[in-house]
């Protein structure tokens, strides 16, 4: 019997198995580099300042972007770094929207926006953590954009399970014991 890899073909499903392996390896690295910090900014700094972790994370997120997407919008903690890395991996321009805290006028959160979305653009929303979306939703609605998809790097395990099929595309879940595990592990 001949070896399929020797002829440039791969057995059916090898791509899914490779992706599952990469997700498991990245989950281990995210857990190891997370440190004891619990706040999103500290966790983002732990993850996004490590080139190997950032490169693999950006690559996985880039492969999940829909082909009709015009622009990547990274939101929340580490948005500028995450947006730039995914932009480089995908070839798409990016916008970064970070939360600065409550505004003085009590009209919602104060946001720092780096870049610009244009009306009728199709965007992919990316964030390290799930809670970032609520803070920028009104900004995106006002921008009159079409959302092609949303990917979140880490959600609490209980949140991911509650969403089930309606999960926004999370890569990893954080269980009660604070272990990070792949959310979409294809076999």
TrEMBL record:
It comes from Compostimonas suwonensis. This is Uncharacterized protein. InterPro entries: PRTase-like. Gene3D superfamilies: 3.40.50.2020. It comes from the Bacteria. Residues 1-20 are annotated as: Disordered.
